[in-house]
Amino acid sequence: MPAEVDIIIIGAGVVGLAIAAEVSQINKNVFVFEKNRTFGLETSSHNSEVIHAGMYYPENSFKAKFCVGGNALLYELCEKFNINYKKLGKLIVAADDVEAKEVERLYHQGLKNGVGGLQIIERDDIKKLEPNVNAVEALLSPSTGVIDSHNLLRCFSGRAKENGAEFVFNTEVIGIERKSGSYRVGIRDDEGISSVTARVVINAAGLSSDRIAQSAGIDLVKAGYILHYCKGQYFSLDPKIGRLVHRLVYPVPEQSGVGIHVTLSIDGSVRLGPDTKYVNKIEYTVNENDKTDFYRAVHRYLPSIEPDELSPDFAGVRPKLQGKGEGFRDYVIRDEADKGFPGLINLIGIESPGLTASPAIAKYVAGLTAEALN
Question: Is the whole model's pTM more than 0.90, yes or no?
Fold first, then answer.
């Protein structure tokens, strides 16, 4: 490994990989450090694999802009690079008239955000589309789909490597120090502790991104960068019960997430989840005792399911800037020049819809990187 490079990307999740694929098109001296043995082992491989449309987020927020832009870019990537996907569409359903007002709010928010094809449909039309779904009203989003996220990760990684980017796994970043117009990045690997100097450092470390920012000297409390771990569990439906739905089916959103929903995977299996539980540590066990809560949540709009048809599947952990009971927090994606760290680009709080947003985020970060190198 050279002692000096142009760009270091910390983290090889879907966002870090997308950035590597993008910035390596214009700069061949790109290194990606990942603490795990390979890419995408954390948030990027523990999620619903949904290509979101973008109606949940405030207008002009990063989440709204990058979700809407990323939705179109992802479908283009899938076609170009033969990544498996299904544009199934989804229903956000209202169980009563109170929830119907939220469905209508999401419809108008989606229009403001530029989401195409949205329709509000009533009970009879819902039954025509999804006979097993019980709802008084629903928002139909035709541009929502599912993607083979592992194939997407491999695609971004492969494109980055073709462009000359280098991946360094089993390597943890332990410190970042500003030195003479560049950054000395301390790393720990199997051979011990060493350092590499870079002109630009891109912090795409996901669940560890706040600690990486702190290691560079940023006051997390003052900056508002403290992450909160929010665990989401999934239960699978017994495949023997057949295909209950043909689209993704979501309830109206809750404060900490979009609610326990019904997701169809690429292979046709059906999952329920995720729930939202703020936790103090990162771990991926599924508590079978929570099955009753999942059943009750989904039974409201999918009454034909039975509790014994649910089985524990997997869990993921979201890196949220929004603490429990707090309001909306947008992504942090910025060059920290105004804090005295020019060329340090932080990406913090990249939770859902991060998978969908990843190619759009990558283009934005590539622009910040080009400015920092000039």
Answer: yes
